[in-house]
Amino acid sequence: SSFMLPATLQDNAPYTLEAWVLNDSISENECVADFTTSHDELEKIMLVNGTEPRCGVINHYGWYEDAGYKDMKELAGKWQHIYICFDGRMEQVYINGKLVSEKDIQLLVKPSQFITLGRNAEGDWPFTGYLHSLKLWDEYLPLKE
Fold first, then answer.
1. Can you tell me the distance from the alpha carbon of 34 to that of 44, in angstroms, rounded to the nearest whole number?
2. Is 109 helix (H, G, I), strand (E, B) or coil?
């Protein structure tokens, strides 16, 4: 991209991320969008659509802080509504309205040089599916049921 992550999304700032994704053949690690260029632990907001149970939905370059979905392979060929909201302490990850992860986490997001779509900032983890929409807010917007 020709723009970077806004300053309001640095450090441990609240955020909400929403995407509609369709992927016919979900592999282990497929990056839909990488919002940061950092390589350091907890400095990453990366939307993933992969079968990796530890970090297959959201990756922060942490271990505990990342989130996957053990049944992701079952969503191949189906539209997925991915909704992630973080209030500065708790992060909730939803897929098609189902809460798949809720954790108390700490992030250290640093200024980013650019945003990458379809692979991570390093050029790895290519996304093989379709992205209908992608939204990122610099505030906590809990999912309305």
1. 8
2. strand
Q: What are phi and psi of 38, to 5 degrees?
A: -70, 155
- In the sheet with 15-22, reading across from the earlier edge strand, the strands are 98-104, 90-95, 79-86, 15-22, 130-137
Report CA-CA distances (Å) from 58 to 2, 33, 53, 145.
Answer: 23, 10, 11, 21
- Residue 133 forms part of a structural domain: yes
Assign residue 74 a region: left if phi > 0, alpha if psi is -120 to 50, beta otherwise?
alpha
Q: Write the CATH number for 58.
A: 2.60.120.200
C-alpha to C-alpha distance for 95 and 84, rounded to whole angstroms: 9
User: 92-102 pLDDT, tens per residue?
Assistant: 999 999 999 99
Rounded Cα distance between 66 and 101, Å, is 9
* Predicted model pTM: 0.96
Domain that holds residue 120: 7-137
Contacts of 78 (CB under 8 A, 6+ apart): 22
Tokens of 126: 């290519």
**pLDDT tens profile 46-58:** 999 999 999 999 9
Answer whether residue 57 is part of any domain.
Answer: yes
